[in-house]
Amino acid sequence: MDFGSYIRWLRQQRHQLNGRYTIQETAQRVGIGTTYLSRIERNDVLPPSEDVIRRLAADLGEDADVLLALAGKLAKDLREAIIQRPILFAELIRNWGDLSDQELAERVYKLRGK
Fold it and tell me: Packing angle between helix 86-96 and helix 76-84, nearest 10 degrees?
């Protein structure tokens, strides 16, 4: 699913449970125009900035990293970490990219020292 369609789906799911998730009210809470949110949901514009995506994530109860990935973006803190150590992070991602979710979760758990 693409970014805009997913945003629309999330908002409509929330709207079924809580009437305050109209496109107008959601846009107002996020601090963007209703027309702009409508265009985002229809994929008529490129995905918004990281800041807007984070506000959408908070309002819609979704993980910001998930929305950023759908938008083809990388969080600023992750981007900065990769830029500081590009070879190490590239190797880490390439070597761990083929692991199953279970295997990856186990390795992350070990890295956290738990």
Answer: 110
Alpha-carbon distances, residue 77 vs 35, 57, 65, 83, 113 (angstroms): 30, 17, 11, 10, 22
- What are the domain boundaries of the chain? 3-70, 76-111
Give this prediction's pTM. 0.85
Residue 106 structure tokens? 């186990």
Residues in the chain predicted with pLDDT less than 50, given as ranges, are: none
CATH number 1.10.443.10 given to 3-70: no
Is-contact 45 39, C-beta < 8 A?
yes
> 42 phi and psi, to 5 degrees?
-90, 0
> Do residues 77 and 100 make contact, with C-beta atoms less than 8 angstroms apart?
no
- Can you tell me the distance from the alpha carbon of 92 to that of 86, in angstroms, rounded to the nearest whole number? 10
Place of tokens 């699913």: 1
pLDDT of residue 114: 60
